[in-house]
């Protein structure tokens, strides 16, 4: 087990991006799709320009075609308005299809990037982070961006083009009415920015609450969580706790929905009032002897004015949505910016033929390198395990045994010294070589919610059915699998709960046998087995270990009596080393540990 002094691991928080820098970073997400976005821009521009023509056609109908009784011109103008509507609709559908596709691809890229970054994070990150929190970043945060990512680019281009084209058309109709229509725009912009800042703050709180709820659900509604809750009589308490979390979310959802709602409704109200004001202003100008405005011009202008406010409000709403989404992007970028401590070197070494010699050369390790006050988990470890040899590591809980095993497959990097395989520092190896070289059977057996065969093939996707069966036989689990109604197609259940602890451990051993690594790390590999099953599995492990380098980490000392060398760890240091019989004769730490194992008591003098 890791040392008891291991501190809580938290990644150094990244510096939050300024809004302008963050927006630039968001725009870079769309860079691979520039061509498609360019096409969207052309469609949007064409659609906006075509739609602006409709009020001019309407003016000609009202001022010329109808008063003069020109039926042919009326028909052409009416047909033009119909074609304008059809073309605009077709362009809108096409731009929606392309922009939605681009938006979904960007979301896919984000999800994949976050998942890939999490795959690179050190093991300590996952031992100190709630699973629901990780899931929430991928599902809720990225999912919450969907509307913004899929429609923002199109909305910005469409509305900017519409506003520009509409203002030009309005000026062409009557500049005085245009000035009146634009007077209130600065107020609208100010209102929208205020609302955007408020919603951004609430959105950050909301996503944090969603993450907390996801973590609660993940932990309490897992098979283990249900078993613990029911056996401890805490089901009602868990329900009340969830209800409290849900109640907080209700409040945040209401606040998010209502944030700035009254201010934004003011904009809508003004939009509805403006046509009346324009009609009033035109009529007043006519009665006071001012320049006359034709009915067609006035109706066309009001149509354009309504067309102006719609994209303007949409632009302002898009700005509000972007500000709200910045909180979500910030949470996602926090994960993308997490420092990766364990990386592949620029020019990695690839081992083609792996013999399997493992060395620990003056190895020190501490979980928090920055805190010198915390004692190192491992200190001055010097060990050599020859190719094909066996090393057993024993010691009290918290002595650093599991940590020592984790350094070989590079689940952690050493703080000082180095760990080598065939003379090559594991930090210099490419990840593929390291994965092929080292197999781990952990005390934490994990099985996917899939069939037995799929769980075994996770080690070797190209394994044949015969190879899977052979691995299962070697792990003493084939007969049990064959006796199941669906055999190797049996679903193992969530985290393998359809199997006993011993059966899951043997499946994990079969999975490692199938991978056939030259170096084996057996971390309490038989800890969940009864005496009879342990003996059977130990036979399989002995057969598997023949000719392979094996490092066995054990509390149950019956599994390591025949090791080539046994080392005793205490406080992260090697306090004894030797073979089983030699260490017993010394009557030191190892002999004391053996006395604590009732099954080995008879071997003591």
What does this structure look like?
The chain has 605 residues and is α/β, with parallel strands linked by helices. Helices cover 60% and strands 9% of the residues. Strands 6-7-8-3-9-10 form a six-stranded mixed sheet, sandwiched between helices. Helix 3 (71-120) runs antiparallel to helix 6 and helix 6 runs antiparallel to helix 12. The radius of gyration is 35 Å and the shape is elongated. Mean pLDDT is 77; it is low at 1-15 and 598-605. It is found in: Cell membrane. InterPro entries: AAA+_ATPase, ABC1_TM_dom, ABC1_TM_sf, ABC_transporter-like_ATP-bd, ABC_transporter-like_CS, P-loop_NTPase, Type_1_exporter. This is ABC transporter ATP-binding protein/permease. Residues 39-324 form the ABC transmembrane type-1 domain.
Task: Point out poorly predicted stretches.
Answer: 1-15, 598-605
Percent of residues in helical segments?
55-70%
Largest sheet: 6 strands, mixed
Number of strands: 10
Please indicate the percent range of residues in DSSP E strands (runs of 2 or more).
5-15%
Q: How confident overall, as mean pLDDT?
A: 77
Radius of gyration: 35 Å
Q: Tell me, what's the shape? A: elongated
Give a quick set of tags describing it.
605 residues, alpha/beta, 10 strands, disordered N terminus, disordered C terminus, ABC1_TM_sf, ABC transporter ATP-binding protein/permease, ATP-binding, transmembrane helix, ABC_transporter-like_CS
